[in-house]
Amino acid sequence: MAEVDGVGGSRLTWPDFVVITVYFLCVLIVGIWSSRKNKKDSISSYFLASRNLHWIPVGASLFASNIGSGHFIGLAGAGAASGLAAHGYEQAAIYGLLMLGWLFVPVYMSSGVYTMPEYLRLRFGGQRIRVYLSCLSLTLYIFTKIAADLYAGALFIQLALNKSSDEWLYISVFFLLGVAAVFTIVGGLTTVVYTDLVQMVLMVMGSLVLMVKSFHAVGGYYSLVERFPYAKASIRAMGVNNKSCGEVPPDYMSLLRTLDPSKSEYPWVGMTFGMASIQVWYWCTDQVSTVQ
User: CA 225, CA 37: separation in Å to the nearest integer?
Assistant: First the structure.
């Protein structure tokens, strides 16, 4: 287990390195096995895994593709800083997924398309709108999603290794990019799906263990609710008390909060109506916005 050093950091010990090594070996073995299983003799085999995947690995891959370091670090931090209202993002996802299954997927299937750029080309004609939306989607992915996930994952590796230099942050980023690129380019969708299945199992098991240990450490759920408003951050940013994440709001247990955005980071009007358009974009169109 990781040991705490004298300056408040952590130092990995040999059991930690054994677990990390076994993890990467398991992912590597699954990646090589799935890559050999995939024929890759056609575009359909490479990008669609020959359409012969079971729904369990497909669902696990969708879960693992959506949940990542941005959730474990970013969303968890937002919940710790603001309380229950941060859960509104995930609650709204339920309605977005229902809309995807009942309204959008039937249109995609009947049209015989796989991506939103492909559907818009079929709907309005011309190749320019397809190329434009593909380039726009890739740009947004790089500067919003991929950048944030890479930074959060690299930050975790940097803290786990107790390396504070920026060089280690960039090394961690390139390491994550390299591992993901090798599996994706060599094995196609089949390798991505099966490696995501491994990631999903580890994430769910690790999250459950972390949840149980966390509740045990604070004395249970009711103790968490009672003690949460007294848990204030002790670190100050540049010598100034950071109230945005250092002070718990009084309505920390409220999902629907005040109308005034200056008094709440999650006003109920924005979380209700503004979130609706975001969910339609994210769950119903953005997940199929690729360069195909």
Answer: 49
What does pTM read for this prediction?
A: 0.72
Q: Which of 242, 252, 200, 283 is nearest to 80 (CA)?
A: 252
Q: Are 232 and 246 in contact (CB under 8 A)?
A: yes
**Which stretches of the chain drop beneath a pLDDT of 50?**
6-9, 237-238, 290-292
Q: CB–CB of 152/74 below 8 Å?
A: yes
Q: What Rg value do the Cα atoms of the chain yield, rounded?
A: 22
Which pLDDT value is given to residue 242?
Answer: 56
Residue with tokens 């690790």: 206
Nearest to 90 by CA among 108, 74, 114: 74
pLDDT at 244: 56
Q: Read off the DSSP letter of residue 50.
A: G
Burial class (CB in 10 A: 0-12, 13-18, 19+), 52: exposed
Domain ranges of the chain: 3-78+86-234+241-288
Burial 178-214 (b: 16+ CB within 10 A, else e): eeeeebeeebbbbbbbbbbbbbbeebeeeeeeeeeee
Q: CA 252 to CA 269: how far, in whole Å?
A: 17
